[in-house]
Amino acid sequence: LVFHHDRIRKIVLIYKMVYFIKNINNHIKIGSTVNLEQRLQTLQTGNSADLRVLYTINIPDNESLIFENHVHRICSSYLIQGEWFKETVIPFLLKHPWYNQNMIKSN
Asked: Cys staple from 33: which of 24, 39, 54, 70, with CB 3.0 to 4.6 Å?
């Protein structure tokens, strides 16, 4: 007689956050990370002026890259260079009910 035990699979949902960071020129960097504090320190190393986190959106890790790319696409008319956007990108996003509800304002 052989007993088979069903394995219980533990599913851990890891969240990343899409962040909106402002520099001294009022440009907004839109990116994603698992560790915002570490990411901010890394970005700060290359900047002589303080960077400030304005908003974050929590997104499941498996969707974060797709979502970040989506945000970049819908904000493309505000693009300055790379992942840096004009500051008017924030009011543009906040006009949309989903973003207004899901963008968490930083302290």
From this structure: 39
